[in-house]
Design a protein that fits this description.
2 copies of one chain form a homodimer. In chain A, helix 1 packs across helix 8. Chain A is 36% helix and 25% strand. Chain A has a 9-stranded mixed sheet, sandwiched between helices. Chain A has a 4-stranded mixed sheet with strand order 3-2-6-7. By secondary structure, chain A is of the alpha/beta class. Chains A and B meet through helix 7, strand 13 and helix 9 of A and helix 7, strand 13 and helix 9 of B.
Chain lengths: 300, 300
């Protein structure tokens, strides 16, 4: 079933305690769509500048990712983010942000994309996210991401958006900020009461918690000693999750839980190298192998 | 099978953002033995002063906890700890510590305790822990806890102890400190290479990771919106874990994993009220009920 993602396509410069990379492909829609493409076709809506390397575009095009919604602005420059990870590899500092063409991003869906059953509104202003939603015709499942900036500075538009999405994915600190609740279980359910039928709170290296009216469950991250670059972990998690749901064509409780597990596993590969490097090396069978180990890990 | 614990029995004054309690029963051996007593008899070795309330002693005695190793020092005062939890209920500040009789604690095992198959050396100086080990005759399984203080200030005795224990239980920050490793999976295995056959790294509200030569697995904490007082969570975790192992009379890989799950569930009850209050209210059937839910949570 068609899966649509709207979000950023970026060039990232990343410093980690061990290694650095300059102007590699990044962005929320990039990580999401690459992760989701293991499960089926993806439609990407985003914007880049003329400086966006043809090889990066090809990387996505080779993966069953429809780029007819990826606009290139003549003379424009691609969204650029430079960040540095602290030794714990969880906390990071933003060193430089150049919004460039992404600063004026007013997503316009190609007509063929307006009929998309599954929609992911990657992190962006809730006003922009809402404008995307207005262009989609009767989606079956809409999931959004958000961040502290919008919680603080676009609170009302965010609350309006939450009334219209089926699911929300956000970080633990963001769930606490949004609800002013310190207990994460309470916070998750309070977010859910703002509108979404389900909420997934991402806890980074500690996994994720799922909240629906009748369910609260935690799935841990897949333990790995090879964390090279955590950038895009959350988006590849969402990509794996929604990719699986779109492939399964349903979002029953059991499917949602399986989807969350797939999201966790795709993310566990994503962090094992910079950018999309690790995901380029693996196949669906690698994800399935890890799923077998993950299931075994959680059974006793 | 006889399970022996040597550690602190204390009076705690605890402030949380919502409520406070003064001079309630606490201490590592207390939380451990109460938790373990759900599964079978426990032998406690510790020391208290004359001020230790008879009702607290009775609380333990009523639970299949053999107190013939709990020494009362005439004229002495019981180990006292006063602490305050920050709003996140994970971080805490120590406001006051009075070691009192615990400061001179030189554990001497009653003769009847020297034959104990399962031994838990609760957090204490590694020199003291070693002196206990020297008094036990051919234990089948020895597990120790430790803390940052001993890692920093008694490094050599700790390393010597690690060569003689089967298992070590410690916090994530302590595992990182001991190994100078930021990645927790790497850190856990490096701790294991210092001697113990298995290592359990406690991650508080995020659960625990198990490390043996052939296994690495994470089990999440049981999600609860009712965290009243986290004091003793780690010790009740260890108590549930070793209590289960002692009852099962083995420590095969599968039993160890089940034991870790029981530890997590007993700890999830422990934090739902101050001191031993919540554990006093529940029965083994409550733990089993939660186990059913926990298993369901982790299966997909």
């Amino acid at each position: 079933m068609p899966l649509l993602v709207v979000g950023s396509v970026a060039l990232d410069s990343i410093e980690t305690p061990l290694e650095s990379r300059d102007r590699i492909i990044g962005g929320s829609a990039t990580h999401f769509s690459y992760a989701a493409s293991f499960f089926g076709p993806v439609r990407l809506v985003g914007v880049v500048g003329e400086d966006f390397p043809a090889e990066y575009r090809q990387l996505l095009a080779d993966r069953n990712i429809d780029l007819s919604g990826l606009h290139t602005i003549p003379g424009g420059k691609t969204f650029y983010w430079k960040g540095k990870y602290l030794p714990n590899m969880n906390d990071r500092e933003t060193i430089e942000v150049q919004l460039n063409v992404f600063g004026d991003f007013k997503p316009k869906l190609p007509d063929t994309f307006r009929q998309s059953d599954f929609v992911f509104l990657a992190n962006g202003s809730p006003v922009t996210q809402m404008s995307v939603l207005d262009q989609v015709v009767k989606p079956r499942l809409v999931v959004a991401d958000t961040m502290d900036l919008w919680i603080r500075e676009q609170h009302s538009p965010l609350l309006a958006l939450l009334k219209r999405v089926d699911g929300l994915v956000l970080n633990d600190s963001e769930a606490k900020l949004l609800t002013q609740e310190e207990n994460l279980v309470t916070a998750g359910h309070k977010v859910r009461e703002l509108g979404p039928k389900f909420v997934v709170v991402k806890k980074g290296e500690h996994g994720a918690i799922f909240f629906s009216e009748h369910e609260t469950y935690v799935l841990p991250a897949y333990p790995t000693d090879r964390v090279v670059d955590p950038t895009g972990a959350g988006d590849s998690f969402a990509g794996g999750m929604l990719g699986y749901l779109a492939a399964k064509k349903n979002f029953e409780p059991q499917t949602l839980k399986e989807a969350m597990a797939y999201g966790i596993l795709v993310a566990s590969y994503n962090v094992e190298d910079f950018s999309l490097n690790r995901l380029q090396q693996i196949k669906m069978s690698d994800i399935e192998d890890r799923l077998v180990k993950y299931r075994r890990m959680l059974s006793f």
